[in-house]
Amino acid sequence: MSSFKDKEILLEVKDLRTYFKTDNGILKAVDGVSFVVHEGETVGLVGESGCGKSVTNLSIMRLVPSPPGKIVGGEVIYRGTDIMKLSEKELRGIRGNKISMIFQDPMTSLNPYLRISTQMIETIRLHQDMTKAQARERAITMLKLVGIPSAETRIDCYPHQFSGGMRQRVMIAMALSCNADLLIADEPTTALDVTIQAQILELIKKISAELKTAVILITHDLGVVAGMCDKVCVMYAGRIVESALTDELYSNPAHPYTRGLIASVPKMDGNREERLFSIEGQPPNVIDLPPCCPFHPRCDRTCEVCRHAYPPVKQIGEDHYVACWLNCSEEERQEAMNGGDK
Amino acid sequence: MTKYIIKRLIGMIPTLFIIVTLSFFIVRIAPGGPFDGERALPEAVKRNIEAKYHMDETLLMQYGRYMFDVVRGDLGPSYKYKDYDVNTLIGVSLPNSIVLGSFAMVVALIFGISLGTLAAVKQNTILDYFPMILASFGLSIPLFVFAPLLQQIFCMWLGWFPTTGWFMNNNAPLRTAVLPTIALSFAYYADIARLTRSSMVETLRSDYIRTARAKGMKNSTIVFKHAMKGAMLPVVSYLGPAFAGILTGSIVVEQVFLVPGLGKFFVQSSFNRDYTLIVGVVIVYSAILIIMNFIVDIVYAFLDPRISYK
After folding, report:
1. What is the reported pTM?
2. CB B207 to CB A105 under 8 A?
3. Given pLDDT bands bounded at 50, 70 and 90, which one contains residue A143?
4. Which helix (DSSP H) or strand (DSSP E) does residue B245 occupy?
């Protein structure tokens, strides 16, 4: 798969931190996430439930419900401007216009009280100088593009008159109606049945290629990632533990968690008698996590230092980064052990 | 939709019929009668009176006679207020109650919805606490305390309004309506504001509002265009019974401000065992209630496209 390194950087997330204040303490949902999206690139964000995938992307759009959530640090640089520093008004100019989102549950993501036409036209007219009739034309074009049959009449329907898959198509059409540069798809197929899943993914792939839109795809399905993404970031407990180009990650997983994830995918040609592989234990509670590798209680290759310090991010190949003590030298481990004792 | 409306209208008839029948018999089961006073009437006088009102006939005969009258639109003579029939009593007092009730409901709706929405949008700020504290007062201060308090402040101390009177009678000025309206609307404001706030808070947390934000919509557009319709549904369903209650008058407000409304007949007719008047006001109340609930159902269908009646 070709690298997007020579393309321009579209979005750069630097050391993003989003914390939630809860009664039990500070919940560090996203704790120092950094990654880069190039123009036209599809980046996968993988991890278990609750690892901070969704919050990362809500933070990019500054949509984290606040309170209790708060983006406490980091930068999100879109084409040279830091989204975190924009005014509410400037931010609205980016939301839905330059960066769009589609969500997990298409059944609840569309306003049930408004017609599809109303919802689509308002989005288009919000960001583009169009008359109502032009915006309607544009909306119909987009609906046709995502494969809604007889879009001219269906546009005046209400969301409940569409099936789940159709609603997700509408969401995609709406999200891309202003020619966004970046589409953030937050588990877009989780609530759909399998045949529709494939169609929706195929649609996202086709349209993003057609419109040259970059995509951040949040998912917990490694199969989806393999088919869709140019680059993958594996998240665990609010951090990215490994990131690499997709082929590289599958052939050469470096972090024990990534290896566990890949091994957990059921194989069609495997022995039917064999038990399916699973990673033992539960993801950690990210409230008041001590400084340690959050994965160490579940890791099969733990060593002393894992319990005392978080591993630094190391580059181990072209575009391949991993945060694991296994890839660090003995001196670095020793230093971390001494530092941790102080 | 038209078919549904016609069906509902026809459906009102048996409902009303059952209500009339039940109340006709229940009031007669209660001990005492309209002509029982402190002293027992002479036997002959009592028999004469009973004969005049056909109370010497069997209960079923009386029921049949009464139903026949009701169907013709005649609610019968009042047993207590001699020379008046129930139609007149209700006809004179109900318009006053409806006018006062409508005023109060409009005030309650305007303040309830606007302050409730404000409280939801500005959650956990002073703009949330103030309307909600006001609403708590509205719920917890009884009318018979609140109404005289208003009179003390605005009539006695400030002298802005007359203490009593009603503008639809005796050429009294329009401002006589102000205090009764405020007094009557306060508790309804409290309910509406709290309902609006809680359902608005819930709506603003929903997925489709997040979608609207992600589209880059302005906060005000989100609240009024995207959230308002859904947030109004609980308020609308509350309004059906609330309207029926407020339109048929409140005895406390009527007594304190001397408004000649229907409310006092609710209470007095029961004390007096004024059989025809009791059943009369019950018919009026239930008819209004049924119609209001019917209107609520129709409004619901307009607000929520997922509801369709066949």
Report:
1. 0.84
2. yes
3. very high
4. helix B228-247
